Amino acid sequence: MIVITVFAVVFTITGLTIPSSIISISCNDPEIIDAGSRAFRVVNIFFSTFGFVITSTDLLQVFGKGIAARLLPMSKQDFFLIPAIIFLQKIFELNEDHFSRTVASYFALFVAAFLSVAIFKKLKSQSRELSLRERQPVIIRISPVHDHLL
Fold first, then answer.
1. Considering the chain, what is the average pLDDT of its residues?
2. pLDDT number for residue 55
3. What DSSP string describes the chain?
4. pLDDT in tens, 23-59
5. pTM for this one?
6. Are 84 and 69 contacting, i.e. CB atoms less than 8 angstroms apart?
């Protein structure tokens, strides 16, 4: 989770700092580069959440939480995207879809964190139990019958 999140943050920073350079690789039109750079920045803001949400989905699946694991992609695509589109258009008069996707992605991040907390607590508890078992001394009893073997 840490590795993919670091990668996502580095990619986000890169996308926020040099979007026009990235877009100009495939296009020379200044208008398209300008509009594409603005859209690329907005879409890139949510990319930093990608690692945590995807890894949380996998983690939930591994621990047998199939419904919760399916809830994460659905929350981003359905539960939050549609209201974000409606809300952003009516309140802020933003007609561009990429703003809505960014908002939906951040709400999905909160759902992932909420659903993953129980899994992380369980993992921490199991890790603590294993650690305590390893610290306990092992007592070996030798039967008097077998003393002559020593």
1. 80
2. 85
3. -HHHHHHHHHHHHHHHH-HHHHHTTT---HHHHHHHHHHHHHHHHHHHHHHHHHHHHHHHHHTT-HHHHHHHHHIIIIITHHHHHHHHHHHS----HHHHHHHHHHHHHHHHHHHHHHHHHHHHHHHHHHHHHHHSPPP----GGGGGG-
4. 888 888 888 888 888 888 888 887 878 888 888 888 8
5. 0.66
6. no
Alpha carbons 141 and 15: distance in angstroms, whole number: 65
Nearest CA-CA partner of 41 in 63, 16, 12, 62: 16
Residues ≥6 apart with Cβ < 8 Å to 12: 44, 45, 47, 48
**8 Å CB contact between 22 and 36:** no
CB atoms within 10 A of CB 24: 16
Give the Cα separation of 52 and 71 in Å (integer): 15
Burial category of 46 from C-beta neighbours within 10 Å (exposed 0-12, middle 13-18, buried 19 and up): buried
Q: What is the DSSP string of 89-109?
A: HHHS----HHHHHHHHHHHHH
101: nearest Cα among 32, 50, 34: 50
Contact 68, 115 (CB under 8 A): yes
> Within a 10 A sphere around the Cβ of 39, how many other Cβ atoms?
16
